[in-house]
């Protein structure tokens, strides 16, 4: 009878044991399977007893509180990542020149003779030589 305020009641411990054993999955299967429709009222009674000490307002607040906080945190994280990506994109755009020179230039290849006695004159980029 001397329990701590945060201590789980017997009812909570039974529900936790049902969850650990996988019995809650079995109840969900029985409730949703068409061929097991004969057990529907029994499953409904078990579920109503599981939620016996809970108020609907508390259950709704618990479900939305965690999901809402996680959703808000995810949204803020995605927004910061998007802002960082946009800043990187802008910095890369500023580093590039806006005009591209298509003139590759002319180069004289010394030591390589053309048809005559002169050196070869090459009119494309050196990477293609």
TrEMBL record:
An example Gene Ontology CC term for this record: replication fork protection complex
Official protein name in the record: TIM protein
Keywords carried by this UniProt record: Cell cycle, Nucleus
Keyword Cell membrane set for record: no
GO molecular function annotation: DNA binding
Localization per Swiss-Prot or TrEMBL: Nucleus
Domain of life: Eukaryota
One Pfam family, short name: TIMELESS
The gene coding this protein: Timeless_0
Main location: nucleus
One Gene Ontology biological process: replication fork arrest
InterPro entries: Timeless, Timeless_N
Domain named Timeless N-terminal: residues: 7-108
């Amino acid at each position: 009878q001397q329990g701590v305020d945060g201590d789980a009641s017997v009812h909570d411990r039974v529900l936790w044991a049902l969850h650990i054993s996988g019995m809650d999955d079995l109840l969900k299967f029985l409730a949703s399977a068409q061929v097991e429709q004969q057990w529907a009222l029994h499953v409904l009674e078990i579920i109503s007893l599981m939620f016996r000490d809970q108020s609907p307002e508390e259950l709704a607040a618990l479900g939305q509180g965690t999901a809402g906080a996680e959703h808000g945190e995810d949204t803020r994280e995605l927004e910061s990542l998007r802002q960082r990506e946009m800043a990187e994109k802008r910095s890369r755009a500023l580093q590039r020149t806006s005009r591209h020179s298509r003139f590759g230039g002319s180069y004289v290849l010394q030591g390589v003779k053309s048809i005559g006695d002169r050196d070869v004159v090459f009119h494309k980029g050196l990477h293609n030589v």
